[in-house]
Amino acid sequence: MNKTAEKQELLDKIVEAIQDVKGEDIMIFDLSNIENSVAETFVICSGNSNTQVAALAGGVEKKVRNELKERPWHVEGTENAMWVLVDYVSVVVHIFQKQVREYYDIEELWGDAVITRIENEF
């Protein structure tokens, strides 16, 4: 499987895991054409509480580990679960509590990215 297909499979599993735990406002940011970006792709979503944010992060890690046998290179933010970052190197997942996401306004920060919105399934 080539790198593009592997990355798409990883993205699909991440989005599925977020949807399984009812994560909201899922967006995929393609940063591959942005100079000096820290990753090729960001997946961003929101949860309604620190419990849901922690469950979203755990769900992503578990689904990717069980189905693709991949573990994140780095995870941070699980202590207070206001903003959890799950880093798979080419894909970085940002899981925010809603008010934290609004405060940091990451969408504006990466406004040059190609953004795909995932429709909620519920």
From TrEMBL:
InterPro entries: Iojap/RsfS/C7orf30, NT_sf. Keywords: Cytoplasm, Repressor, Translation regulation. Gene3D superfamilies: Beta Polymerase, domain 2. The keyword Ribonucleoprotein does not apply. Pfam families: RsfS (PF02410). GO terms for biological process: cytosolic ribosome assembly; negative regulation of ribosome biogenesis; negative regulation of translation. The keyword Signal does not apply. GO terms for molecular function: ribosomal large subunit binding. SUPFAM superfamilies: Nucleotidyltransferase. It is found in: Cytoplasm. One of its GO terms (cellular component) is cytoplasm. Belongs to the Iojap/RsfS family. PANTHER family: IOJAP SUPERFAMILY ORTHOLOG, MITOCHONDRIAL ASSEMBLY OF RIBOSOMAL LARGE SUBUNIT PROTEIN 1. Interacts with ribosomal protein uL14 (rplN). Functions as a ribosomal silencing factor. Interacts with ribosomal protein uL14 (rplN), blocking formation of intersubunit bridge B8. Prevents association of the 30S and 50S ribosomal subunits and the formation of functional ribosomes, thus repressing translation. This is Ribosomal silencing factor RsfS. It comes from Chryseobacterium cheonjiense.
